[in-house]
Description:
Blueprint: E1 2-3, E2 8-9, H1 13-35, H2 46-64, H3 69-78, H4 82-91, E3 94-96, E4 99-101, H5 103-114, H6 120-133
Helix pairs in contact: 1-2, 1-4, 1-5, 2-5, 3-6
Amino acid sequence: MNISxxxxxxNGKKEVIYGLKKAAQEAKNIxxxxxxxxxxxxxxxxxxxxxxEGKMNAYLDMAxxxxxxxxxxxxxxxxxxxxxxxxxxxxxxxxxxxxxxxxMAIFTYGIRDAAKYxxxxxxxxxxxxxxxxxx
Length: 135
């Protein structure tokens, strides 16, 4: 991937981790925007939700369909890496005033959808990753 604004090129492990982290953040944004629609004075945020869904799907597609996805997931699972903690913190359930936001559900649905067209190794890696970050 070539980011033209900073001229940074990266692929492989860094690209997969970047895609997964950004997708997790977008799942959190989706749930936060959705939660604002509840309560006595709801705020309509449908456009923010659709934008975040599009970004999340793009990041997940980028990460899951990378040739190094399976190898990267194996490394993440076996190592005690601070990145693992950031995934779990970003995707954890959080109580809000009128309910609870659960970004993990959105992330799980999105990554399984992205894995539909992945290789068998990619599908297995997705399952391993979801079991690893499951709360």
